[in-house]
Amino acid sequence: MSRFTLTEDDLKAGYVIDPDKAGWFLLEHAGSVEKASSKGDGSIVAHVTFKVIRPLDEGADPAMVGVPVKVFYSEKALGMSLPMWKAFGKEIKAGDDINFNEPKGMTVAGYIKREKHYQGNGYVNSIVDFRPASE
Known about the structure:
By secondary structure, this protein is mainly beta. Helix content is about 10%, strand content about 40%.
């Protein structure tokens, strides 16, 4: 008997967007966890997970529905998270404390495309831009 049972979410997580069907998708913020950086430098990285609700562009890959897509924000470059916060309608300024779980359950639009994995082994879904869900 196997020790592992694949779930529907496991199968969805393995799906990589068709490179010809990148586009804007409605996303739900599914949660965030903070982990030590894999670089071993003592820094913390927020692993933010979004779940694809539906395509917003005609021609965007419909097979992405239900697929979880992660975005990573290092505490050493928090400014990279500003487009996400702006899309959620949150104004961030110097000195603010931010909680990456604050928008959990909220929706936003994200542009998803296929990109080479940063370690060079295969491809991943990448959210490269955000905008408010209502646009």
